[in-house]
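Form 7-S
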Amino acid sequence: MDKGTKDEGPLRGTKDQGPRTNEIVSSFILHPLSFFRPPSFVLRLSSFFSRRPVRILDPQPAYALWADSYPPLAHNPLMLAEQAALETRLAPLTPTNVLDLGTGSGRWLPFLERTGAKCVGLDFSLPMLKQNPASSPLVCADAASLPFPNDSFDLILASLMAGHLRDLAGWVAEVRRVLRRGGHLLYSDFHPLGAAAGWQRTFKTATGESFAVRHYPRSIAYQRAALVGVGFKIQAVLEPGLEGQTSSAVEAFRQRWGERPVVAVFHAVKR
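Output:
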């Protein structure tokens, strides 16, 4: 695995027994386009929102290239905006069983573990899971066909992975199946206005090759309808921009793109 891979931008058993600590259950790997966490780190915001034409990779090969250099931190302005918005929705919740969908290298599991809940991290990418330092069980599986019984969780978090799903409506229905009644779904994605502007989720390898990860943008209205259509009640839809961030990279972004939302955060409850 090439340690020099760099991210250039956006546009990633049984319920009772579970895996042992730090054990990855990999027997549920299905088709390669299920889901992945998006890139975890960016060197400059100006390159983060790339419009240069590059070869588009499906998520599986793309995230295999990233795995060794994909940190479990939010350390670019877009991810900081997304994290702040999600934390405001997560803070008042008191879950007992949590699923971190698209856990990747483990950015959200430490936060979720601090709630005292029993947590499970799930991702399609085995190379990404091998970088995940969390003590919670890790499962390598397909987000569109979750290997859990009905009503298993009271909170499901899916951070910046929904845009890699071919069938968002089908995924929302599957998530609802494993949520308990009254359980919470929080998920985020890059804002559809970014896709409309031509932003791509890109990265560059150590040899200088640039690639983009395949992404399926949907309007806010479409995503609302998908949630309501399978029986969710929408609690909130947040569309944060880069408010409160003042770095030179953020200022360069504002000069180029103006003030606009960069992510969309959805909070829904199973009826």
